[in-house]
Amino acid sequence: MSALEIERQDEIAIVTLARPPMNAMTTELLEEASSVFGELAAQESVRAAVITGQGPAFSAGLDLKVVPRLGPSEQRRLIMALNDAFGALYAWPKPLVAAVNGHAIAGGLVLALCADCRIAADVALQVSLAEVKVAVTYPVAALEVARAELVPAAARRLILLGESLDMQQALSLGVFDRCVPPRSLLLEAVGQARRHAELPSKAFATIKRELRATSLARIAAARAGDGEPRLEEWLGEETRRAASAALRRPA
Question: What domains appear along the chain, each with residue ranges and CATH number?
């Protein structure tokens, strides 16, 4: 079963994470995302895209009930899927707008950070990069995207200290560009994508690639199997203990 739903509104593709309530990321979802955005990049009739989620969350990242129990080969496949998905979205040659409908946690926030414009619904939501709290170190693509897109103060608080931000903090630190009433989120995101779609496509793709060249080079090397330290050792006993403790905490 597909974990993504794709809709077209003329020249705009709307890609929806369809694993509610939390749209937790699986290896299969990430592999599908890489494939879908590769196909959309090749379609001349698609000029821009919006990515959003079903339910109360944009995405809460990886499933902590499953990931710490993966064996070595499953971990390696997941790491490659993370690098491929985040790499594909961050390098996507057309305008990409994130319509953040709810919680954006860990890999879910990284996914939003891959977008060129980030619009959030004005709802009570959690914004965090919780990896350090559950003893999960960052694959190359996730860290490169977060480091490139966050201002130093936000990177320190989110990446290193694992803090959670509310909407106003996320806006003030530039994590999101703006927030809108939830009922108008998708309309606003599609409208923004249409405006960006009017930019000259070849110039946009070239400038985006050159603007992100340093990060994209590191991600490309990781996708090729080079320079990815997580491939040798990623999740261990510390991760299992920290993830179990996190799951026991009240919401």
Answer: 4-185 (3.90.226.10)
